[in-house]
Amino acid sequence: MLNRSARPLPPAAFRSLDFASAEDAAIWTRSWVTIGHVADIPRTGDILPFTVGTHGVHVERLADGGLIGRFNKAQHGGCRSVPVQCQTGAKTKCSFTSCGYSRDRRPIAAGSAEDAKALDQYIGLRPERLLPVAVRTIDGLIAVNLDPRGAEAADWLDQALLPDVASNEDSTQQSVHWLECNADWKLLAYQLAAGTELSSGLDFVRTSILLAGGARATATLLFPNAVIVSANDGHCVIILQPVAIGHTLCRIRVSGAGSETKSPESLLQSWLVEISPRLQQAKASQAAICFDPTDPESDSVQRGPLRHAAEPARWLVSKISEQIQSCSITAPGPFQATAHIGRRS
């Protein structure tokens, strides 16, 4: 059971390049990170790219229906080293989307002529020589682990854990949407799952929440970056991917299999309405912790946005602290950063 006695995270943990680097070393490279859904790559040869921290990886659909994960061939694009402008904590918009410091592209369809050139950045001519990445699936979700020592499966990688989350393969309606939010991934994870705790483990926490329309739903936070919101008429899966300091890409997939017939567009809009207040609250929390050089208490733990928050705040903070401490990483000191640039104060 997770020890929930960790100290609250200071504001710098949500706007610090140093802390983001610590998360890359202790969380993103040591955890089972959710990167997408099996429906993203339905055909043989399809590739799902995803930047995990500062590491470009992909998962490919094999001829037998299985999946294989690898590090991208062009880890730093066409550069011999990482340019200074790519070391600010913000993913750049670069033609080399395989780079661990650039923005990701959508899944690559096998056999597409226009994607053939881009595909070379990921697998090259000898994909069997690329470093492998561990891959697992659960209820249609694809998770990868970059730890070469072969980390144990997270306790949410248990088919019995998510009985209410359908694989979506038989859903009558599905829709995918990418939405960028000016908020740290931790604030979004908390706000999307904020409610009454139902159960938890070392790597997951499940809560009962109220949607914007007043309906009761269940939210399951799969550490570190996936939140599944389940209601009577379907599911909403939000995969969180940091793309800059205090800025997160939300990869949203909604599905519905109830008796009510909705178009994919209307289904998506109805779910966005339900979760929008929670996204807005995360943005407000991020804006409230902007660094103020004239305020000596700007980086005080007392100003931490999750200090007095309800569950799963303590669970999330304790999990993050445990991961960082287990990797013998010293928590960074006072730090300031905008959405694009980080610098020591």
From TrEMBL:
GO terms for molecular function: 2 iron, 2 sulfur cluster binding. Transmembrane segments: none annotated. This is Rieske domain-containing protein. It comes from Methylocella silvestris. The lineage of its organism: Bacteria, Pseudomonadati, Pseudomonadota, Alphaproteobacteria, Hyphomicrobiales.
